[in-house]
């Protein structure tokens, strides 16, 4: 998709399975492209991911790839599902992962990152 959109400035990813249980999620394994798409190298300014599943390895790899290879990124927003009070240990792990994404070395100048619960 990214290779077919060389002038893409805004990328919005939405988890269509937000209401499903983890065992019923449908999806394909992400394979990193051999070459960085032109839109990431020169044009992408806004990256929004609604329903980001911070526990899924593939989603973490996609987020890392985009953040590391986007040179014009001005704002990145990750919206995650809220955590129930009984899962406070899980919250600590989620926070560590979000902090890791925010601290990644990026090709672009410092950009705004927004992490929110949906």
TrEMBL record:
Originating organism: Arabidopsis thaliana
Protein name, per record: FBD domain-containing protein
Residues annotated as domain FBD: 38-116
Pfam families according to UniProt: FBD
Source species, domain of life: Eukaryota
PANTHER family, per database record: EMB|CAB62440.1-RELATED, F-BOX/RNI SUPERFAMILY PROTEIN-RELATED
């Amino acid at each position: 998709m990214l290779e077919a959109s060389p002038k893409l400035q805004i990328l919005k990813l939405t988890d269509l399975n937000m209401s499903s249980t983890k065992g019923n999620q449908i999806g394909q394994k992400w394979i990193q492209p051999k070459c960085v798409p032109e839109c990431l190298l020169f044009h992408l300014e806004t990256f929004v991911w609604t329903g980001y599943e911070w526990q899924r390895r593939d989603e973490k790899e996609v987020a890392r790839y985009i953040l590391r290879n986007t040179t014009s990124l001005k704002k990145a927003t990750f919206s995650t599902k809220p955590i129930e009070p009984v899962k406070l240990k899980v919250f600590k792990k989620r926070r560590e992962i979000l902090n890791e994404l925010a601290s990644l070395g990026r090709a672009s100048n410092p950009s705004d990152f927004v992490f929110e619960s949906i």
